[in-house]
Amino acid sequence: MPHPRSLDSDDFLLSVVVPCYNEQEVLPLTHARLLEAFGAAPFRFQIVYVNDGSRDATGAMLEEYAAADTRVKAVILSRNFGHQAAVSAGLAHADGDAIGIIDADLQDPPEVILAMLDKWRAGYDVIYGVRRKRKESLFKRTAYTLFYRIFRSVAEVDMPLDAGDFCLMDRHVLDVLNDLPESERYLRGLRAWVGFSQTALEYERAVRAAGVTKYPFRKLVKLAADGIFSFSTAPLTLVFYAGLITAAIAVAGLIFTFVQRVFDITVFGVAPTDIPGFTALALMILFLGAVQMLSVGILGEYIGRIFVEVKRRPTYIVRTIERTAEGGTAGPKVVEAGREPQAESRK
Ligand code: UDP
Ligand code: MG
Fold first, then answer.
1. How far apart are CA 49 and CA 75, in angstroms?
2. Residues 122 and 63 in one domain
3. Average model confidence (pLDDT) for the chain?
4. pLDDT tens-place string over residues 20-48
5. N or C, which end of the chain is more exposed by having fewer CB within 10 Å?
6. How far apart are the CA of 103 and the centre of ligand 1, in A?
7. How many domains does the chain have?
8. Who has greater pLDDT, 135 or 106?
């Protein structure tokens, strides 16, 4: 059972991590909304923006916010590393006692984080948002629904349905997450994998407040594949069973042919002496070829991931961290790579 926590101490700090990639249209709205949502709260808060190699004015805007407000920290990555890496970078630089993750496009209402905080106070360690309704195209909705159900049935972790990255977690959980060694990070999977006391909070997912999606179909497929291949060996089991079934069919065919010839049985007008169809043969060769290529492809997915992990390259590279110290002076510029030790990031 979760143990209630107290928020009373003046020391409590809430961090909100916001990954941004080419978000110049929506950023002013987002920034204002975040300040509005948390500005009046009776505790300290911090916004950790991550500029994921944007090519528009996002970087300049984030630097401006960081220069104007001591509560804003802008982590500038050296190039575009992708959403999951950007969030990981933000998480490594969040100083809060409780840490929220939210997209820059206001699809997830920031106010929900306050409701999540109530659950944190009640003692939960991870509070993840579950989308009650998605205001997205039928195709995207169907794809998401299908994916989450397939994932749940094959994954080795107890993954909640329809939960994205939008969440709030306790410092302890974040420390554990930050210390996980893999460089290809599927955060919602890792978050479920670490355990602790987790609970869902339903909310309605809005449409993007401005700008266009930074997740084309190709990237969504990659995210889905990352989820399946890094949290499940079910595809390998599938290959194994495909082999078994094919072998069983072959043996059955062998026995059938043997019996047919010995007893000279005519089946569906085909006598044992008739020459079997060329089409059937060609189709079988094609089918088996396809199954083999698919199997090699599935093996390849795992080997590719092993390859990426053994290189031990960092998940992201930080170019600079922009922030303003209390007195109004700019903080020191920091250059670093990857996930640095916790002690470092908790300044
Ligand atoms: N994002 C990012 N790097 C990328 C792509 C996206 O940091 O390479 C951020 C983006 O700025 C947004 C969040 O990830 O804050 C989710 O992206 P988006 O809203 O475009 O995805 P969708 O909601 O359409 O799936
Ligand atoms: Mg979005």
1. 6
2. yes
3. 85
4. 999 999 999 999 999 999 988 888 999 99
5. N
6. 7
7. 2
8. 106
**Percentage of residues of the chain with pLDDT beyond 70:** 92
For 85-140, where are the E strands, in sequence order?
A: 98-101, 126-134
Q: Is the pLDDT of residue 284 over 90?
A: no
Position 346 pLDDT exceeds 70: no
Helix (H/G/I), strand (E/B), else coil: 315:
coil
Q: Are residues 177 and 269 in the same domain?
A: no
Which residues are near ligand 1 (CB < 6 Å)? 19-21, 23, 52, 80, 82-83, 86, 103-105, 107, 208, 213-215
| Inter-CA distances, 298 with 146, 167, 242, 303, Å | 20, 32, 12, 9
CA 117 vs. chain centroid, Å, equals: 22
Probe residue for ligand 1, chosen from 76, 80, 83 as the CB with the greatest number of ligand atoms within 8 Å: 83
Please tell me what DSSP assigns to residue 181. -
Cα separation, 31 vs 287, whole angstroms? 55
pTM of this prediction?
0.79
19 and 83 Cβ atoms separated by less than 8 Å: yes
pLDDT at position 328 is 53
Same domain for 163 and 77, yes or no, is yes
* Predicted pLDDT at 77: 95
Give the domain range for residue 55: 13-231+315-343
Structure tokens belonging to residue 26: 């929506």
